[in-house]
Amino acid sequence: MTDGSLLVRDARVLAGDELVRADVRIDGERIGELGPVGTLTAPEVLDAGGRLVLPGFVDAHSHADGAVFAEGVQLALLRQGVTSIVIGQDGVSYAPGDGAYAREYFGALLGDHPGYRGGGIAELLAGYDGTSPINVAALAPLGTIRHGVMGDRADAPTARELGAMRDAVAAAMQEGAVGASSGLDYFPGAHASDAELAALLQPVAAVDGVYVTHMRHGYESQVGIGVAEVAGICREARVRGHVSHLHGPLPLVRRALAEASASGVELSFDSYPYARGCTLLAMAVLPAERLSRGPAAALRWLSTRSAQRWLVEEWLPGLGHRPDVGTDWPALLTVAGVERAEDAWVTGLTIRAAAARTGKTPEAFVVRLLAENALNVTAVMAVPSPRPWNVLARIAELPGHVAGSDGIYIGGAPHPRGWSTFTRFFLRKVVQSGEWSVAEAVEHLSARAARRFDLGARGRVARGWTADLVLLDPAALVDAAGYGAPLVSGGVDDVLVGGRLVLRDGRLTGEHAGRGIRRSRIRTPHDPIEQEPLHV
């Protein structure tokens, strides 16, 4: 037999739904052959020792757009088995354009992108080729595109403006975007009507891309309304749909998805196995109408004494009446990240605890914190009645589910979901409860997302498929991440990306084998060596 470049010896791999012992030979970037243990050879041998060899996991919702170049973030992803991420979420990312809008509005979520100097999706994806060990697929961000054409205006676009935005979406799809995203609780995305969105999604539908959305006020008790709006947009545009970080009461979520399916729209969705969320602190505590004018206008308003007095005396005392915030909101919001180094001591503290240290009221403290950090503050949000694991687990059983961490890696006390979403799913659903077989786990954590987002020959351990491989020891899995102190997961010590070892014995090897993934579809499930990328 012809020697390959690397042999993974004595692995447990999936043959259909069953696990079998095998050797896996890697030829360049692809899996060359699988055979009985001891029958294949290669110049370099990696002893799996009976560990599972699985296709690399796909994080369907990541905010590591700029953070992926940091070694700590790379370890966070690889140690839980993630080899590919999908960025450009919530309608905001660096491309197309000069990146200024993403840095101004979402800088506290995305971090700075050290290599992007402007352009389009082509330039953004090129910046991920050979620069980290992680593969990166990108969505065309409709909020960024709207801002580039219309700024912060809230009115409907003119025919010329709509055409310019549609052209930008078409260009992004031609350059390899896997779909388009909207953030309808963010701005200016919230200004877009359903008709505008459907029009902008026509170039996505033309190449059978996917529409990914943070729904408009469409979570928790409003999940039915949110999903119905998504389904209506997808029907109008004739586009495939995907809902970001879907959460809500289980009966409502189940009914909403079933009604969308009955209307002819099959939605996929992502979720993470945590009850708490994380977002910009300003979104949780400031009036939406003030944020709707853009971050610069919101900051100018917030810097006035009259605005601060009104917030402290009138608006914030009434915040507890909102069901998504809770009556004791200062105790439920924990600062995750700040812009100013002198405020770093605040991270990991609740608003109530931090305010007590300064002698200020929580209302006065949070206003000062946002104003002095130019709104660039993130917060982990607890809820008055957290959803228990058994409910989160049931949502992950619904048709169309994939794992998405919603990982944010900026700040001194970030949410642990970016460090352990995939470990927690595998540990709890496979190892501890047996609710998922290994094959089902691969479907939820890798294969379905690879198909849904057209990530090419990924998601299977089979001849000809891309050698993004994770060596996983179920008995050694450790879900070590916690609120305020995210730690890398345990149980994944060796990872290959594109056939090259990027993680060895739990350490980065320095191999930057990751690439920007251009949309590429496998036309048949057989012999993907022969498949060509999807041309548009």
UniProtKB/TrEMBL annotation:
A Pfam family assignment: Amidohydro_3
Region Disordered, annotated ranges: 514-536
SUPFAM superfamilies found in the cross-reference section: Composite domain of metallo-dependent hydrolases (SSF51338), Metallo-dependent hydrolases (SSF51556)
Domain Amidohydrolase: start-end pairs: 44-219
Biased composition (Basic and acidic residues): 524-536
PANTHER family, per database record: COLLAPSIN RESPONSE MEDIATOR PROTEIN, HYDRANTOINASE/DIHYDROPYRIMIDINASE FAMILY MEMBER
Protein name, per record: Amidohydrolase family protein
Species, as recorded: Agromyces soli
